[in-house]
Amino acid sequence: MKSPVSSLKDRQSSTNSPHREASSTAIALAPPQCGLDFVDRELSAVNPAAAPARYSPPTDSATRFAPRGSRGAVPPSASSARPLPLSTGGPVIQRYTKIPVAQQKPNYWQGLNADLRVSDDGNMAVKHVNGVPDNTNAYQEFFATPAVLRQSAQVLQAIDSAFTITQGQGTLVGPPPNSRLAWLLGRTQTLYEADISNQDLARSGQGDYTFNACSANMSNFIGVLRTLPLDPQRLEQRRDLILKLHGAFNFEQREINVGEELTKAMREARQIATGANTSGEAKTAYNALSHWMRQWVSWRYGLNASALPDIGEGWGIMQGGKKGQPSYGHYAPVIAQSDHDRVTLENDVSQRTGSRSPKIGTINPNWYMRMFGPVKKHWFSATEDQSFYGEALRFEEDDFGENPLVARIGSTQRRQQN
User: Fold this and answer.
1) pTM across the whole model
2) Could you tell me which residues come within 8 angstroms of residue 320 by beta carbon, excluding any fewer than 6 positions away?
Protein backbone atom coordinates (compact mmCIF):
# COMPACT_ATOMS: atom_id res chain seq x y z
CA MET A 1 0.00 0.00 0.00
CA LYS A 2 1.30 3.45 -0.82
CA SER A 3 2.41 5.55 2.09
CA PRO A 4 0.07 8.38 3.15
CA VAL A 5 0.45 11.71 1.43
CA SER A 6 1.59 14.42 3.80
CA SER A 7 0.00 17.41 2.11
CA LEU A 8 -2.45 17.89 -0.70
CA LYS A 9 -0.64 21.09 -1.63
CA ASP A 10 2.48 19.01 -2.32
CA ARG A 11 0.37 16.87 -4.67
CA GLN A 12 -0.92 19.76 -6.77
CA SER A 13 1.10 21.64 -9.37
CA SER A 14 0.88 25.39 -9.85
CA THR A 15 -2.03 26.64 -11.94
CA ASN A 16 -0.17 29.63 -13.30
CA SER A 17 0.50 27.87 -16.61
CA PRO A 18 -1.87 25.54 -18.46
CA HIS A 19 1.16 23.65 -19.79
CA ARG A 20 2.92 23.13 -16.47
CA GLU A 21 5.47 20.36 -16.23
CA ALA A 22 4.49 17.49 -13.96
CA SER A 23 6.91 15.37 -11.98
CA SER A 24 6.64 11.60 -12.00
CA THR A 25 5.35 11.74 -8.42
CA ALA A 26 2.58 14.11 -9.40
CA ILE A 27 1.56 11.91 -12.31
CA ALA A 28 1.55 8.79 -10.18
CA LEU A 29 -0.17 10.18 -7.10
CA ALA A 30 -1.85 13.53 -7.47
CA PRO A 31 -5.36 14.24 -8.67
CA PRO A 32 -5.03 17.30 -10.94
CA GLN A 33 -6.29 20.72 -10.04
CA CYS A 34 -9.54 21.98 -11.45
CA GLY A 35 -9.27 24.06 -14.58
CA LEU A 36 -5.74 23.43 -15.79
CA ASP A 37 -6.05 19.67 -15.64
CA PHE A 38 -5.44 18.10 -18.99
CA VAL A 39 -1.87 18.55 -20.17
CA ASP A 40 -1.52 16.05 -23.01
CA ARG A 41 1.59 14.21 -21.89
CA GLU A 42 2.03 10.46 -22.07
CA LEU A 43 2.77 8.61 -18.85
CA SER A 44 5.67 6.89 -20.58
CA ALA A 45 7.27 10.27 -21.31
CA VAL A 46 7.32 11.11 -17.60
CA ASN A 47 7.68 7.75 -15.93
CA PRO A 48 8.22 4.80 -18.30
CA ALA A 49 7.85 2.26 -15.51
CA ALA A 50 4.37 3.56 -14.73
CA ALA A 51 3.12 3.10 -18.29
CA PRO A 52 2.16 -0.48 -19.30
CA ALA A 53 1.63 -1.46 -22.92
CA ARG A 54 -1.16 0.68 -24.28
CA TYR A 55 -3.30 -2.07 -25.76
CA SER A 56 -3.99 -5.72 -25.18
CA PRO A 57 -4.86 -8.10 -28.03
CA PRO A 58 -8.49 -7.70 -29.09
CA THR A 59 -11.04 -10.11 -27.68
CA ASP A 60 -14.73 -10.58 -28.28
CA SER A 61 -15.58 -8.75 -25.05
CA ALA A 62 -13.04 -6.03 -25.68
CA THR A 63 -14.26 -5.16 -29.14
CA ARG A 64 -17.65 -4.18 -27.76
CA PHE A 65 -16.07 -0.89 -26.78
CA ALA A 66 -13.90 -0.37 -29.84
CA PRO A 67 -15.09 2.33 -32.28
CA ARG A 68 -16.19 1.20 -35.71
CA GLY A 69 -13.17 1.11 -38.00
CA SER A 70 -10.64 0.87 -35.16
CA ARG A 71 -8.30 -2.05 -34.59
CA GLY A 72 -10.72 -3.45 -32.04
CA ALA A 73 -8.35 -2.88 -29.14
CA VAL A 74 -9.00 -1.30 -25.79
CA PRO A 75 -6.76 -0.16 -22.92
CA PRO A 76 -5.41 -3.15 -20.99
CA SER A 77 -7.49 -2.40 -17.91
CA ALA A 78 -10.69 -2.72 -19.91
CA SER A 79 -10.12 -6.37 -20.76
CA SER A 80 -10.36 -7.28 -17.08
CA ALA A 81 -12.96 -4.70 -16.12
CA ARG A 82 -15.85 -5.97 -14.04
CA PRO A 83 -19.10 -5.78 -16.02
CA LEU A 84 -22.15 -4.47 -14.23
CA PRO A 85 -25.59 -6.08 -14.47
CA LEU A 86 -27.36 -5.54 -17.75
CA SER A 87 -29.98 -2.81 -17.71
CA THR A 88 -33.42 -3.19 -19.20
CA GLY A 89 -33.16 -0.26 -21.55
CA GLY A 90 -31.21 2.75 -22.73
CA PRO A 91 -30.27 5.89 -20.80
CA VAL A 92 -33.28 7.44 -19.09
CA ILE A 93 -34.47 10.96 -19.80
CA GLN A 94 -33.87 13.32 -16.89
CA ARG A 95 -35.34 16.79 -16.64
CA TYR A 96 -35.90 19.74 -14.34
CA THR A 97 -38.17 22.81 -14.51
CA LYS A 98 -37.14 26.41 -13.85
CA ILE A 99 -39.48 28.27 -11.48
CA PRO A 100 -38.83 32.04 -11.78
CA VAL A 101 -39.14 34.03 -8.58
CA ALA A 102 -41.88 36.14 -10.18
CA GLN A 103 -44.11 33.04 -10.41
CA GLN A 104 -43.50 31.84 -6.86
CA LYS A 105 -46.17 32.28 -4.18
CA PRO A 106 -47.29 30.53 -0.99
CA ASN A 107 -47.44 26.77 -1.58
CA TYR A 108 -45.78 27.30 -4.97
CA TRP A 109 -42.02 27.15 -4.26
CA GLN A 110 -41.81 30.47 -2.45
CA GLY A 111 -39.20 31.06 0.21
CA LEU A 112 -35.68 31.54 -1.16
CA ASN A 113 -36.35 34.76 -3.11
CA ALA A 114 -34.49 33.33 -6.09
CA ASP A 115 -35.21 31.51 -9.33
CA LEU A 116 -35.27 27.76 -8.70
CA ARG A 117 -34.57 24.57 -10.54
CA VAL A 118 -37.13 22.02 -9.38
CA SER A 119 -37.01 18.39 -10.48
CA ASP A 120 -40.04 17.53 -12.59
CA ASP A 121 -41.27 15.08 -9.97
CA GLY A 122 -41.03 17.85 -7.36
CA ASN A 123 -38.67 15.87 -5.12
CA MET A 124 -35.64 18.21 -5.27
CA ALA A 125 -34.93 21.94 -5.62
CA VAL A 126 -31.85 24.18 -5.84
CA LYS A 127 -31.28 27.81 -6.80
CA HIS A 128 -31.07 28.40 -10.54
CA VAL A 129 -27.73 29.53 -11.98
CA ASN A 130 -26.41 29.59 -15.52
CA GLY A 131 -22.82 28.44 -15.48
CA VAL A 132 -20.85 28.74 -12.25
CA PRO A 133 -21.47 31.11 -9.29
CA ASP A 134 -18.82 33.75 -8.68
CA ASN A 135 -17.20 33.66 -5.22
CA THR A 136 -20.36 33.33 -3.15
CA ASN A 137 -21.89 30.77 -0.81
CA ALA A 138 -25.42 31.74 -1.91
CA TYR A 139 -25.93 28.56 -3.95
CA GLN A 140 -25.57 25.94 -1.23
CA GLU A 141 -29.29 25.50 -0.45
CA PHE A 142 -30.58 22.09 -1.46
CA PHE A 143 -34.09 20.87 -0.64
CA ALA A 144 -35.42 17.35 -1.11
CA THR A 145 -37.92 14.86 0.24
CA PRO A 146 -36.87 12.74 3.23
CA ALA A 147 -36.66 9.70 0.93
CA VAL A 148 -34.22 11.42 -1.42
CA LEU A 149 -32.06 12.59 1.48
CA ARG A 150 -32.00 9.09 3.00
CA GLN A 151 -30.98 7.57 -0.32
CA SER A 152 -28.10 10.04 -0.67
CA ALA A 153 -26.96 9.45 2.91
CA GLN A 154 -26.92 5.68 2.42
CA VAL A 155 -24.88 5.86 -0.79
CA LEU A 156 -22.35 8.31 0.64
CA GLN A 157 -21.83 6.06 3.63
CA ALA A 158 -21.46 3.00 1.40
CA ILE A 159 -18.68 4.55 -0.71
CA ASP A 160 -16.87 5.97 2.34
CA SER A 161 -17.43 9.55 1.20
CA ALA A 162 -16.06 12.38 3.31
CA PHE A 163 -19.47 14.05 3.03
CA THR A 164 -22.61 13.47 5.05
CA ILE A 165 -26.13 14.70 4.32
CA THR A 166 -29.03 14.84 6.77
CA GLN A 167 -32.50 16.36 6.91
CA GLY A 168 -32.59 19.92 8.23
CA GLN A 169 -35.35 22.21 9.45
CA GLY A 170 -35.97 24.55 6.51
CA THR A 171 -38.76 23.68 4.06
CA LEU A 172 -40.05 24.47 0.57
CA VAL A 173 -43.58 23.61 -0.53
CA GLY A 174 -44.95 23.19 -4.02
CA PRO A 175 -46.56 20.86 -6.57
CA PRO A 176 -44.58 18.59 -8.90
CA PRO A 177 -43.93 20.60 -12.09
CA ASN A 178 -44.69 17.57 -14.26
CA SER A 179 -48.19 17.13 -12.81
CA ARG A 180 -50.76 19.62 -14.06
CA LEU A 181 -53.43 17.71 -12.14
CA ALA A 182 -51.59 18.26 -8.86
CA TRP A 183 -51.35 21.97 -9.65
CA LEU A 184 -55.07 22.22 -10.48
CA LEU A 185 -56.08 20.34 -7.34
CA GLY A 186 -53.69 22.27 -5.13
CA ARG A 187 -51.74 19.17 -4.13
CA THR A 188 -48.29 19.99 -2.82
CA GLN A 189 -45.36 18.24 -1.24
CA THR A 190 -42.86 19.46 1.32
CA LEU A 191 -39.12 19.44 0.72
CA TYR A 192 -36.62 19.74 3.57
CA GLU A 193 -33.34 21.61 3.50
CA ALA A 194 -30.28 19.37 3.46
CA ASP A 195 -27.58 19.75 6.10
CA ILE A 196 -24.29 18.88 4.39
CA SER A 197 -20.89 18.56 6.03
CA ASN A 198 -17.40 17.45 5.06
CA GLN A 199 -16.41 15.15 7.91
CA ASP A 200 -12.71 15.17 7.03
CA LEU A 201 -12.54 18.95 7.32
CA ALA A 202 -14.93 18.99 10.29
CA ARG A 203 -12.17 17.29 12.28
CA SER A 204 -10.34 20.62 12.02
CA GLY A 205 -13.46 22.68 12.69
CA GLN A 206 -14.19 23.48 9.02
CA GLY A 207 -16.96 21.09 8.04
CA ASP A 208 -18.68 23.80 6.00
CA TYR A 209 -15.65 23.99 3.65
CA THR A 210 -14.62 21.73 0.77
CA PHE A 211 -11.35 21.33 -1.09
CA ASN A 212 -10.94 24.27 -3.45
CA ALA A 213 -9.64 22.28 -6.42
CA CYS A 214 -12.47 20.44 -8.15
CA SER A 215 -10.29 17.34 -8.54
CA ALA A 216 -9.56 17.18 -4.80
CA ASN A 217 -13.22 17.83 -4.01
CA MET A 218 -14.24 15.02 -6.37
CA SER A 219 -11.72 12.51 -5.00
CA ASN A 220 -12.67 13.36 -1.42
CA PHE A 221 -16.39 13.16 -2.21
CA ILE A 222 -16.29 9.72 -3.87
CA GLY A 223 -14.09 8.26 -1.14
CA VAL A 224 -10.81 8.00 -3.05
CA LEU A 225 -8.79 10.38 -0.86
CA ARG A 226 -9.62 10.59 2.86
CA THR A 227 -7.84 11.91 5.92
CA LEU A 228 -5.88 9.53 8.10
CA PRO A 229 -7.80 8.28 11.15
CA LEU A 230 -5.12 9.60 13.52
CA ASP A 231 -4.07 12.71 11.57
CA PRO A 232 -6.69 15.06 10.04
CA GLN A 233 -3.93 16.96 8.20
CA ARG A 234 -2.78 14.02 6.06
CA LEU A 235 -4.50 12.15 3.25
CA GLU A 236 -4.45 8.55 2.12
CA GLN A 237 -5.91 6.73 -0.86
CA ARG A 238 -8.74 4.41 0.17
CA ARG A 239 -10.51 3.64 -3.11
CA ASP A 240 -9.73 3.54 -6.83
CA LEU A 241 -11.26 5.70 -9.54
CA ILE A 242 -13.19 4.02 -12.34
CA LEU A 243 -14.23 5.26 -15.74
CA LYS A 244 -17.77 4.02 -16.40
CA LEU A 245 -18.96 3.36 -19.95
CA HIS A 246 -21.98 1.64 -21.42
CA GLY A 247 -22.70 -0.10 -24.69
CA ALA A 248 -25.58 1.54 -26.53
CA PHE A 249 -26.51 -1.63 -28.41
CA ASN A 250 -26.82 -4.10 -25.53
CA PHE A 251 -26.71 -1.58 -22.64
CA GLU A 252 -23.91 -3.47 -20.93
CA GLN A 253 -21.93 -1.31 -18.54
CA ARG A 254 -18.19 -1.61 -18.05
CA GLU A 255 -15.77 -0.19 -15.50
CA ILE A 256 -12.12 0.67 -16.18
CA ASN A 257 -9.99 1.03 -13.06
CA VAL A 258 -7.58 3.99 -13.34
CA GLY A 259 -6.20 4.06 -9.80
CA GLU A 260 -6.42 7.62 -8.46
CA GLU A 261 -5.66 9.60 -11.64
CA LEU A 262 -8.66 11.61 -12.76
CA THR A 263 -6.81 12.79 -15.87
CA LYS A 264 -6.19 9.19 -16.83
CA ALA A 265 -9.92 8.47 -16.70
CA MET A 266 -10.63 11.32 -19.10
CA ARG A 267 -7.82 10.37 -21.47
CA GLU A 268 -8.98 6.75 -21.47
CA ALA A 269 -12.47 7.90 -22.43
CA ARG A 270 -11.15 9.98 -25.31
CA GLN A 271 -8.90 7.20 -26.59
CA ILE A 272 -11.66 4.60 -26.42
CA ALA A 273 -14.02 6.97 -28.25
CA THR A 274 -11.52 7.55 -31.07
CA GLY A 275 -9.52 4.29 -31.14
CA ALA A 276 -6.27 6.25 -30.94
CA ASN A 277 -3.05 4.91 -29.42
CA THR A 278 -1.88 8.05 -27.62
CA SER A 279 -3.53 10.94 -25.84
CA GLY A 280 -2.24 13.41 -28.41
CA GLU A 281 -3.60 11.36 -31.32
CA ALA A 282 -6.93 10.97 -29.52
CA LYS A 283 -7.21 14.72 -28.95
CA THR A 284 -6.63 15.43 -32.64
CA ALA A 285 -9.04 12.70 -33.71
CA TYR A 286 -11.79 13.78 -31.32
CA ASN A 287 -11.57 17.40 -32.41
CA ALA A 288 -11.79 16.28 -36.05
CA LEU A 289 -15.05 14.36 -35.55
CA SER A 290 -18.09 15.76 -37.31
CA HIS A 291 -21.08 16.86 -35.24
CA TRP A 292 -23.04 13.74 -36.13
CA MET A 293 -20.13 11.37 -35.52
CA ARG A 294 -19.51 12.98 -32.14
CA GLN A 295 -23.17 12.42 -31.26
CA TRP A 296 -22.88 8.78 -32.34
CA VAL A 297 -19.73 8.25 -30.28
CA SER A 298 -21.41 9.87 -27.27
CA TRP A 299 -24.42 7.60 -27.57
CA ARG A 300 -22.29 4.54 -28.31
CA TYR A 301 -20.07 4.83 -25.23
CA GLY A 302 -22.14 6.82 -22.74
CA LEU A 303 -20.23 10.09 -23.05
CA ASN A 304 -21.20 13.77 -23.20
CA ALA A 305 -25.00 14.15 -22.92
CA SER A 306 -25.26 10.35 -22.51
CA ALA A 307 -23.01 10.32 -19.43
CA LEU A 308 -25.38 9.72 -16.50
CA PRO A 309 -23.59 9.33 -13.15
CA ASP A 310 -25.39 7.92 -10.13
CA ILE A 311 -25.22 9.28 -6.58
CA GLY A 312 -21.64 8.95 -5.34
CA GLU A 313 -20.23 9.28 -8.86
CA GLY A 314 -19.65 12.38 -10.95
CA TRP A 315 -19.02 14.09 -14.26
CA GLY A 316 -15.60 14.92 -15.64
CA ILE A 317 -15.20 17.39 -18.52
CA MET A 318 -12.14 18.25 -20.61
CA GLN A 319 -11.62 21.01 -23.16
CA GLY A 320 -12.08 20.19 -26.83
CA GLY A 321 -12.14 22.08 -30.11
CA LYS A 322 -10.56 25.35 -31.19
CA LYS A 323 -12.19 27.44 -28.46
CA GLY A 324 -11.75 27.31 -24.74
CA GLN A 325 -8.60 27.20 -22.68
CA PRO A 326 -6.17 24.39 -23.54
CA SER A 327 -5.88 21.72 -20.85
CA TYR A 328 -8.94 22.97 -18.94
CA GLY A 329 -11.12 20.50 -17.08
CA HIS A 330 -13.61 20.21 -14.23
CA TYR A 331 -15.20 17.54 -12.00
CA ALA A 332 -18.70 17.60 -10.55
CA PRO A 333 -19.74 14.90 -8.04
CA VAL A 334 -23.42 13.93 -7.81
CA ILE A 335 -24.90 14.13 -4.32
CA ALA A 336 -28.57 13.41 -5.08
CA GLN A 337 -30.86 11.99 -7.73
CA SER A 338 -34.61 11.69 -8.11
CA ASP A 339 -36.20 10.00 -11.08
CA HIS A 340 -34.42 11.69 -14.00
CA ASP A 341 -32.69 14.62 -12.25
CA ARG A 342 -29.27 14.97 -10.63
CA VAL A 343 -27.80 17.49 -8.18
CA THR A 344 -24.07 18.16 -7.86
CA LEU A 345 -21.87 19.55 -5.08
CA GLU A 346 -18.97 21.43 -6.69
CA ASN A 347 -16.05 23.71 -6.01
CA ASP A 348 -13.32 25.08 -8.29
CA VAL A 349 -10.20 27.20 -8.15
CA SER A 350 -12.01 30.30 -9.44
CA GLN A 351 -13.74 30.47 -6.03
CA ARG A 352 -10.95 32.33 -4.24
CA THR A 353 -12.82 34.42 -1.66
CA GLY A 354 -12.41 32.97 1.82
CA SER A 355 -9.86 30.34 0.79
CA ARG A 356 -7.56 28.92 3.45
CA SER A 357 -4.43 26.85 3.08
CA PRO A 358 -3.93 24.47 6.00
CA LYS A 359 -1.39 21.67 5.73
CA ILE A 360 -3.92 19.34 4.12
CA GLY A 361 -4.44 21.67 1.13
CA THR A 362 -6.39 24.71 -0.04
CA ILE A 363 -10.02 24.72 1.12
CA ASN A 364 -12.86 27.14 0.44
CA PRO A 365 -16.39 27.87 1.80
CA ASN A 366 -17.88 28.82 -1.60
CA TRP A 367 -18.89 25.39 -2.85
CA TYR A 368 -22.15 25.28 -4.78
CA MET A 369 -25.06 23.07 -5.83
CA ARG A 370 -26.36 22.70 -9.38
CA MET A 371 -29.12 20.61 -10.96
CA PHE A 372 -28.85 19.00 -14.39
CA GLY A 373 -31.19 17.22 -16.74
CA PRO A 374 -31.34 15.86 -20.30
CA VAL A 375 -31.93 17.12 -23.78
CA LYS A 376 -35.51 18.25 -23.13
CA LYS A 377 -37.54 18.44 -26.33
CA HIS A 378 -40.61 20.65 -26.60
CA TRP A 379 -43.43 20.43 -29.13
CA PHE A 380 -43.71 24.13 -29.93
CA SER A 381 -40.42 25.68 -28.78
CA ALA A 382 -36.69 25.13 -29.12
CA THR A 383 -35.07 22.01 -27.69
CA GLU A 384 -33.55 22.67 -24.26
CA ASP A 385 -30.37 20.79 -23.45
CA GLN A 386 -30.31 20.52 -19.66
CA SER A 387 -27.41 18.05 -19.49
CA PHE A 388 -24.09 18.81 -17.83
CA TYR A 389 -22.56 18.64 -21.31
CA GLY A 390 -25.19 20.91 -22.87
CA GLU A 391 -24.92 23.57 -20.18
CA ALA A 392 -21.12 23.61 -20.54
CA LEU A 393 -21.61 24.27 -24.26
CA ARG A 394 -24.03 27.13 -23.58
CA PHE A 395 -22.41 28.86 -20.64
CA GLU A 396 -18.78 27.69 -20.35
CA GLU A 397 -17.53 27.53 -23.93
CA ASP A 398 -14.81 30.04 -23.08
CA ASP A 399 -13.37 27.46 -20.69
CA PHE A 400 -14.13 24.08 -22.26
CA GLY A 401 -14.47 24.89 -25.95
CA GLU A 402 -17.11 24.00 -28.52
CA ASN A 403 -16.30 20.26 -28.53
CA PRO A 404 -15.67 19.24 -24.90
CA LEU A 405 -15.71 15.64 -23.76
CA VAL A 406 -17.76 14.59 -20.72
CA ALA A 407 -17.40 11.22 -18.99
CA ARG A 408 -18.86 9.40 -16.00
CA ILE A 409 -16.46 8.66 -13.13
CA GLY A 410 -17.01 6.61 -10.00
CA SER A 411 -14.99 4.72 -7.41
CA THR A 412 -14.52 1.14 -6.28
CA GLN A 413 -12.63 -0.84 -3.68
CA ARG A 414 -8.91 -0.41 -4.03
CA ARG A 415 -6.94 -3.02 -5.95
CA GLN A 416 -4.42 -5.15 -4.13
CA GLN A 417 -0.99 -3.52 -4.17
CA ASN A 418 2.03 -5.60 -5.13
Assistant:
1) 0.79
2) 283, 286, 287, 400, 401, 402, 403, 404, 405
